[in-house]
Design brief:
TF_FadR/GntR_C, about 220 residues, Arc Repressor Mutant, subunit A, GntR_C, single chain, about 5% strand, DNA binding, 2 domains, 11 helices, DNA-binding, mainly alpha
Amino acid sequence: MSVTDEAIDKIKSMIVSGTLKPGERLPREADLAADLGVSRNSLREAVRALSLVRILDVRQGDGTYVSSLAPDSLLDAVSFLLELHQDDSVLEIFGVRRILEPGATALAARFMTDEDIQKLNDILLEQYDGTIEDLVEHDLRFHAAIAVGSGNTLLASLLESISQPTVRARIWRGLTEENAFERTLAEHRGIVEAIAQRDPKLAEARSLSHICGVEEWLRRANA
């Protein structure tokens, strides 16, 4: 269990036990992190995850509150989590990505022009605000550019068609896995370096490692 998952469980336990009640404001971040025995960064990630599923309500400039926990307000969030944790098709889609995308990346190392590679670097160099939405948008654009760069339009089309169904899994990973943002960008940089070196085998290996990491996380989440 990651530190963020541990923080999530502890906050949920406080709510279930009545220590935190519906509509009640959470203690100051520093105090709550100390009480839970986690870092402030891990606490922030836990709060972001719980706000996504509407257990917590983050009010800008006012603090974080336990939501009303009304059934209707939680229904969409429950559906989201059931889709993520019980639908094996998401794992199957990642399995298809694991087969197709490393090959596309190897082709990109052969066929991408210098201009195409510069566009990949431009994606890496863009300024990000650190939100999960920003990370997912970056991830989608990055992988789409490599698929197109493979020079195989059918392969690029196949990868695009299976990309959108994985968005929710990517969002949940970004919210609950420690340092997901930094790890994703670092792995993307490694892939671009291999493509720029015109090394198909290295590009394929780094792409495979990148996708397997996400797939492994998803299997743990589904366990």
